[in-house]
Amino acid sequence: MKPNRFQKVLAEGRVPVGHMVWEFATRGMAQILDSVDLDFAVYDMEHSGLDIDRVADLLAWTHGCSFAPFVRVPEDKYHFLARVLDAGALGVMVANVKTAAQAARIVDAVKYPPQGHRGLGLGHAHNNYIAPNPVEYLEYANKNTTVICQIESPEGVENAKAIAATPGVDVLWVGHFDLTASMGILAQFDHPEFHAALRAVVSAAHKHGKGAAIQPSSPSQLTAWREVGFNILSYGADSGIYKVALSEAVGRIRG
């Protein structure tokens, strides 16, 4: 199990920078991401056609890269959480976490005993197919694995302090589109109620020593949300970045 660069950067007081992959699940993608010096990448199973087999390929291709590979699972179920970790993910993201009890269940599925009840399938992909010392590995893995809870509802915002206080939770990540949709102010990112929700989540995360993350899709959003206090930033998703870059290039050619 390789070191978690995301955790190292965060512990040093710097801002981890990441990116989301949900379309371009190719053998070269990991090396492309590594070439731009990312701290982490999220392979998304919630809004894409990526299944566990393809995610396992992506994680294998990521093995020689320096960034930390995380996976957003389709649902907060043990068979998703444990399987992506056994395939080599260094962390998991779960959408729309609403309560501390839900967060605790996620941690329980992700962490080995005594912190949780993740089953032991040692000597597999997450161990580079080499059987580790069980006692040393479980302690290391529990520390090296990141748990990200997405806050995407008014209930999640209301319970943000309790979720952040849950042992084993590392990051509160605002899903800005889903949060505005659930608040009845879809995509109104300048709305005062949305900004109040952002501040509440950031405050809850920082109060309990956890990271506060968000994924801006433009430089202006990045600047604005960094000023709110988000200290983890994932810039855009692969297909969106590609489309914008290609559109601008085509426009210059035709112009």
What does this structure look like?
This protein has an 8-stranded parallel beta barrel, surrounded by 7 helices. By secondary structure, the protein is an alpha/beta fold. It has 12 helices and 8 strands.
What's the total number of strands?
8
Looking at the structure, the CATH topology is TIM Barrel
Radius of gyration using CA atoms only: 18 Å
Spatial shape: globular
Q: What strand order characterises the main sheet?
A: 1-2-3-4-5-6-7-8
Helix content: 40-55%
Which CATH class?
Alpha Beta
Order of SSEs, N→C? Answer: HEHEHEHEHHEHHEHHEHEH
CATH superfamily, called what?
A: Phosphoenolpyruvate-binding domains
Number of domains: 1
Named CATH architecture: Alpha-Beta Barrel
For this structure, the quaternary state is single chain
Q: Flag low-confidence runs.
A: none
Range of strand content: 15-25%
Number of helices: 12
Distance between the termini: 50 Å
The biggest beta sheet reads: 8 strands, parallel, barrel
The overall average pLDDT, rounded, is 97
